[in-house]
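Notebook p. 47: complex prediction with NAP.
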Amino acid sequence: MGSQGEKLICVVGATGNQGGSVARRFLAAGFRVRGLTRNPTSPRAQELVSRGAEVVQANLDDPASLDRAFAGANVIFSVTDYWEPFFHPECRKQAEAKGISYRRFAYETEYRHGKNIADAAAKVVDSLDVNGFLVSTLSHAGKCSGGKFKELYHFDSKADVFPAYVEEHYPELAAKMSCIHTGFFYTSFNILPNSYFGKLPDGRVEMAFATDPTKVVPQLAPVDDMGSFTYAVWQMPPGKSYMAAGTNCTWPETIETWSKITGIPASYRQVSPEEMIAACGEPQLGGEITDMFLYTSHPGYDGGMKLLQAEDIRKAGIDCPMTTWEEWARKQDWVAILARLHGNSQ
Ligand SMILES: NC(=O)c1ccc[n+]([C@@H]2O[C@H](COP(=O)([O-])OP(=O)(O)OC[C@H]3O[C@@H](n4cnc5c(N)ncnc54)[C@H](OP(=O)(O)O)[C@@H]3O)[C@@H](O)[C@H]2O)c1
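Predicted complex, structure tokens below:
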């Protein structure tokens, strides 16, 4: 693609993993990039400015700030975060005061943020490109499992807005939307070190999830690849749904590749939901996470939806480079990572 100098992309979450990757890729493509952040003076925001982006103050809880931030947008990239309201002590206090679980509280917060993004995007629908509303989302666990998973909140809080709310309230915006589901992040071992790389007494490493060992799982390098994938999606016709993934393989294959790279003997063990919940350290985190790993067995992380992947985009003649788990894992300093995760030197 040539320079897109006149086009403006507004990037939600521009200081984060996904949005940061998108901002850098669209800058490289010659777009004007406007990154949204609550704190424009933060080091991450300033880093974006040094790369040539404009950074504006906006809060997903403040609709007027989104109206200002999206003014003149040709493309909007949307991402919402379930985990900050889940973990934040102030949010936990508010959840308690409302008499709801903090799993539920984080659902309500993420849903509201998504809805505010959609409401503001709908106001600038005329200036958006034909495929100008690119949204990061996940499958609807409640609907895709036929009601079996009623509390996989960090999936449903995304899917209830992208696409459900947008399609119901803003058909014109929905017609310009692409839904980008994201695979398990390669970096998620940081959140679940015991389950990803549990250290056994004999020095071996064990990956221990509640997922069926034969189930193929989509996985993604969010910082490296979300930008490339989103840029490729922008070049496709609108109205389609995707899975951003650099690797599709089972968990036993994932740990086998890791073992080959590190030289550390390692294996996969499917554990009971109870064991996985306990390994997460706190019941609500354990419940949310374990539901995800069970849902990943059936109907599948993608909910059994037919989602386009990088190879489908390439078939359409559009460049869509992605990083495999093996390529990504080879670049990491596993000695340092394991020392950090296991709390000692290896
Ligand atoms: N870990 C996984 O394996 C995985 C897999 C698939 C999907 N996901 C999903 O990925 C999402 C998180 O994405 P990420 O990793 O890119 O996020 P991240 O790196 O944690 O960054 C969050 C971004 O959201 C912005 N933000 C948060 N609250 C905001 C608010 N009230 N107003 C304005 N901006 C706000 C932050 O900006 P400022 O702080 O600068 O304001 C930051 O840029 C989660 O919802 C998670 O469910 C994770």
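Notes: The two ends are 46 Å apart (CA to CA). The first helix runs from residue 17 to 28.
Next step: compare against the earlier run before touching the bench.
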